[in-house]
């Protein structure tokens, strides 16, 4: 029987080549897209699961509350004292480890000098948490001693070539000597953090910036990513419930002892495997993914597969009249209904199996393109797991049965006496069901068109929005503290070039890492205003505001003419609002306290988008400290003769810092990278949306071609009676275009709801324009009309004599 099923299936596939080809092509493309999207989803959901103890590792996070109780700041890193104190107060915690990103350091070995910016200070017990493969050295001791460093093989090769790197000494930042104690393998791409060198955390106790006491008492520097190892199946909620009392115990009370610290800040635990997809905090060690993207791409995969299945159902039921006599004869000679259903389902499953095999080949060919679009190292090898392969082998049966069941039930119900007498006609119910399927296809297509338009409109809005500062022609680079004593000479040399307008130093730059916070701020005096909203700070020199052309709302900028400006503050408008002050002049010249620093407010600047547009503009204080700890240098250019100007900057740099590599970037490029992930995801979304629309049009092409072939005699009679080509094309097209109109009415509210929710992820976003829906509807109708008219015109211009010859 199976052999007979194969024979009949192949005979019918070859007999109806056109419809079979459309079905096979649609299913192949649909399944290939599903395989590609499944690979992406499997990669996104696999982050950090390679760690043997992943289910027991939790990251400590910290949040702050505003006066109304709303969360105003949410960090993935905490202050350094929390790790040891948590271990001391909670005996259930088995181990604690801490990571501190190092930023940019200058490495020197012999004559080789490079800037390295992918380092992390790590505890010696790092390897008890994360599955980092150590190739050389003892993982239990490699990071135990101060001034120890471990390198990846690539970094070791860069500095030592073929020499044995173990126990070699690398000089960091022209002042520290680090001994190489081990070589470790790069972390997998599906890790939420990466590093090419690990510095021993114990080193920080011997540095001026941190020091042992600072690590034990500084609750304001929240830059330390702290992880806990808990017992298996531990109830973290019970521990979190004790955190408020713990905070009140270990931290001083706010507002001169009038308020418990836990009223303004809180700790929480975050599961390691949840970080990549569900953590969107104000500070992450690396850029994360988004679970919403996984849901969106899962939906697209299902949409594409659904459209391909609808094509099969539509075309199979449409061509049912062509197989009516075959079914009638088979019933007369004794074929049972269940045998006919089995035959038709077998054909559907067989076609799907062929499509799946072709889809695997097509997906493999398309994988490099998806890698380039996503920026990830994806591979179909992710599918080669029994947990994936077993369900995947069921796909042809599921898809085949879903797409073939209705046509099988419909065709097996034909009455042989009507069929063999030539009285069989496709029922109105069947035609109505096909119309429902077409409406479903184009509803999905219109939703995808609208979504694509809004995604790119939001991305364009973020790139073009006025940020409150001028980001064009600003060269940025790391600032080296060795320049402190000679900085003014360095700056003066730069400004001798007329193409260089300004040079400024700061602790951060716009579009860079999120700003740090020292806690709350308040005007001081007889009565200290209680403020629980944390205010971020930025250390700058006198030239920062002019370099970025930031506008002042009141007061003045820092000035070299005022010696006391090193004890002064400039606030942004958001900070003034957070303090509850309505009139800017009420705070100018007023004594002010921020953390442990006391001074005077000298100016209010206009709000600027210092961070990504994903974040709201935060309260910000600018400081001009007497002992600067700058990390970034910004040089504003005129925009004329850029190559020569950059070359002049490099010469000046090497004059003052001959041993420090010159590396720079333009600020607008850094700003663009803030939304690089969204742009890539938008491109992938658009690509798959276009494919979905193409498959829908493919089905409509086949359906319209088949429908028109059933009306060739009618078309011939109309032409003989004088009908024009235009009127015939309109006649043949209008029924399908009505379905597209109905699809648009259904799609509009669904698309609005979906995109309204998506836009909530952006603090600054567009309003959904009404015209996008009209354009999407017109575009869908145009695409449908072009698809249909290609067949309609062919039928309209054909010779009526040929179609009427048999009459």
Characterization of this structure:
- The structure is a single chain.
- The chain has 807 residues and is of the alpha+beta class.
- Among the domains are: 344 residues, no CATH class; 201 residues, no CATH class.
- It is 47% helix and 16% strand.
- It is built from 24 helices and 25 strands.
- Strands 1, 2, 3, 4, 5, 6, 7, 8, 9, 10, 11, 12 and 13 form a 13-stranded mixed beta sheet that branches. Strands 16, 17, 18, 19, 20, 21, 22 and 23 form an eight-stranded mixed beta sheet that branches.
- Strand 1 and strand 2 form a beta hairpin.
- Helix 1 crosses helix 11 and helix 14 packs antiparallel against helix 20.
- About 1% of the residues have low confidence.
- It is found in: Cell membrane.
- Keywords: Cell membrane, Membrane, Transmembrane, Transmembrane helix.
- Its main location: membrane.
Features:
25 strands; alpha+beta; ABC transporter permease; single chain; cell membrane; eight-stranded mixed beta sheet; 13-stranded mixed beta sheet; membrane; 807 residues; transmembrane
């Amino acid at each position: 029987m199976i052999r007979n099923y194969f024979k009949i299936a192949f005979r019918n596939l070859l007999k109806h080549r056109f419809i079979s080809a459309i079905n096979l092509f649609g299913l192949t493309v649909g399944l290939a897209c599903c395989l590609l999207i499944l690979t992406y989803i499997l990669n996104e959901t696999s982050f950090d699961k390679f760690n043997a103890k992943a289910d027991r590792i939790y990251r400590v996070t910290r949040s702050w509350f505003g006066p109304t109780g709303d969360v105003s700041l949410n960090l993935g890193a905490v202050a350094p004292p929390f790790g040891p104190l948590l271990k001391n107060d909670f005996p259930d915690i088995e181990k604690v480890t801490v990571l501190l990103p190092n930023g940019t350091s200058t490495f020197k070995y012999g004559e080789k000098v490079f800037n390295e910016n992918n380092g992390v200070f790590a505890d010696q017990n790092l390897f008890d948490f994360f599955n980092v493969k150590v190739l050389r050295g003892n993982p239990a001791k490699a990071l135990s001693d101060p001034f120890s460093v471990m390198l990846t093989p690539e970094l070791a090769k860069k500095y030592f070539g073929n020499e044995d790197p173990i126990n070699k000494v690398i000089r960091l930042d022209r002042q520290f000597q680090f001994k190489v104690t081990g070589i470790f393998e790069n972390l997998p791409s599906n890790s939420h953090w990466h590093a090419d060198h690990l510095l021993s955390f114990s080193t920080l106790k011997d540095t001026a910036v941190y020091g042992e006491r600072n690590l034990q008492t500084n609750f304001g520097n929240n830059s330390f990513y702290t992880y806990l190892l808990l017992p298996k199946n531990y109830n973290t909620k019970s521990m979190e419930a004790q955190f408020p009392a713990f905070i009140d115990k270990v931290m001083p009370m706010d507002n001169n002892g009038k308020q418990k610290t836990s009223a303004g800040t809180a700790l929480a635990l975050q599961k390691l495997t949840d970080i990549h997809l569900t953590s969107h905090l104000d500070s992450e060690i690396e850029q994360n993914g988004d679970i919403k993207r996984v849901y969106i791409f899962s939906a697209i995969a299902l949409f594409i597969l659904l459209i391909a299945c609808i094509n099969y159902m539509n075309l199979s039921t449409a061509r049912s009249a062509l197989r009516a006599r075959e079914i009638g004869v088979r019933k007369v000679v004794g074929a049972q209904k269940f045998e006919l259903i089995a035959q038709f389902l077998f054909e559907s499953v067989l076609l799907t199996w062929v499509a799946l095999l072709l889809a695997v080949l097509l997906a493999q060919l398309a994988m490099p393109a998806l890698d380039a679009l996503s920026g990830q190292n994806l591979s179909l090898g992710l599918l080669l797991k029994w947990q994936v392969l077993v369900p995947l082998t069921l796909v042809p049966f599921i898809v085949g049965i879903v797409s073939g069941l209705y046509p099988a039930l419909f065709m097996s119900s034909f009455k042989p006496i009507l069929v063999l007498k030539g009285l069989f006609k496709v029922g109105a119910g069947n035609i109505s069901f096909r119309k429902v399927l077409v409406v479903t296809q184009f509803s999905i297509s219109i939703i995808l068109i609208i979504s694509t338009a809004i995604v790119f409109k939001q991305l364009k809005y973020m790139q073009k929005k006025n940020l409150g500062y001028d980001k064009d022609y600003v060269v940025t680079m790391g600032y080296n503290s060795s320049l402190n004593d000679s900085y003014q000479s360095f700056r003066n040399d730069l400004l001798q070039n007329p193409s260089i307008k300004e040079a400024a130093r700061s602790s951060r730059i716009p579009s860079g890492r999120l700003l740090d916070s020292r806690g709350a701020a308040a005007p001081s005096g007889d009565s200290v205003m209680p403020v629980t909203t944390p205010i971020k700070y930025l250390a700058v020199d006198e030239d920062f505001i002019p370099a970025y052309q930031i506008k002042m709302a009141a007061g003045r900028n820092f000035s070299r003419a005022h010696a006391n400006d090193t004890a002064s503050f400039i606030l942004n408008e958001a900070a003034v609002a957070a303090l509850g002050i309505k009139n800017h002049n009420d705070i100018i010249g007023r004594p002010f306290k921020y953390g442990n620093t006391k001074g005077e407010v000298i100016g209010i600047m206009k709000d600027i988008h210092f961070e990504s547009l994903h974040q709201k503009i935060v309260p910000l204080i600018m400081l001009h400290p007497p002992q600067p700890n700058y990390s970034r240098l910004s040089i504003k250019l005129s925009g004329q003769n850029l190559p020569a100007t950059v070359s002049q900057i490099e010469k000046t740099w090497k004059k003052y810092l001959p041993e420090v590599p010159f590396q720079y970037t333009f600020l607008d490029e850094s700003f663009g990278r803030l939304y690089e992930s969204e742009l890539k995801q938008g491109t992938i979304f658009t690509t798959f949306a276009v494919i979905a629309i193409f498959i829908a049009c493919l089905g409509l092409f086949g359906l319209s071609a088949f429908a028109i072939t059933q009306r060739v005699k009618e078309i011939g009679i109309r032409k003989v009676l004088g009908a024009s080509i235009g009127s015939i094309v309109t006649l043949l097209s209008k029924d399908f275009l009505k379905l597209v109109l109905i699809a648009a009415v259904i799609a509009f509210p669904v698309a609005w709801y979906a995109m309204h929710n998506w836009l909530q992820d952006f603090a600054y976003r567009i309003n959904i324009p009404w015209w996008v829906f009209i354009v999407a509807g017109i575009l869908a109708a145009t695409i449908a009309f072009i698809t249909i008219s290609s067949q309609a015109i062919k039928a309209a211009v054909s010779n009526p004599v040929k179609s009427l010859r048999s009459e």
